[in-house]
Structure formats: C-alpha cells, structure tokens
Specification:
The protein is mainly α and 98 residues long. 71% of the residues lie in helices and 0% in strands. It has one domain.
C-alpha cells in the first residue's frame, strides 16, 4: 500500500542551524525577575504559564462584557452623538456671528 506524502514546501528543519542569543535571554530573565509582580510570583512558586492563561481568560471575559455593555447602551450612545453634534453646530454658529 502506498502512503501519500505530505509536504509543506518548507526546508527540513533538522538541516537548519538554529542559534539563540544567550545574552538576550539572560537580559530577558533579569528584566522579568526584577519586575515586582513576576518576582513575587516566582518567590511564591506560582506557575507563570497557568497565571498567564488565567489573565488571558479574565481579559477575554472583560472584553466580552464591555462589548455587551456598549451594545446594551447603543441608543444612549447615538443620542449622545446627536447631542454633541447639536452643541457643536450652535457653538460654531455663535462664534461665526461674533
């Protein structure tokens, strides 16, 4: 039985030299360790990957709630826009007369 071949067209990564800038990694580690929040989390043994996922989840929830809030108040936003436009017109008209 013939097995179909799959190719991405990319070079074989086993033949490519991958280099890391050790100094840059060290600089990043120093920067992260000097951050008070990260430093405290490391001292307390917090799993930073899990913490990051938790923060991302919280931000997505807040974003969803914010969008819902805007949609729930869209009529008030439209009225506010209309009122601001009305005021701008009258300010411009008043300034033009003086």
């Amino acid at each position: 039985m013939d097995v179909p071949q799959f190719t991405t067209g990319a070079s074989d990564i086993t033949s490519t030299n991958i280099t890391f800038d050790v100094n840059a990694i060290g600089d990043d580690l120093e920067r992260f360790q000097s951050d008070p929040i990260v430093k405290k989390a490391l001292e307390e043994g917090v799993d930073l990957r899990q913490y990051s996922r938790s923060i991302d989840k919280d931000l997505q929830e807040i974003e969803t709630l914010t969008i819902k809030d805007v949609f729930n108040n869209i009529e008030q936003v439209g009225k506010l826009h209309k009122d601001i436009t009305y005021c701008k017109f009258h300010i411009f008209y008043t300034q033009a007369r003086t």
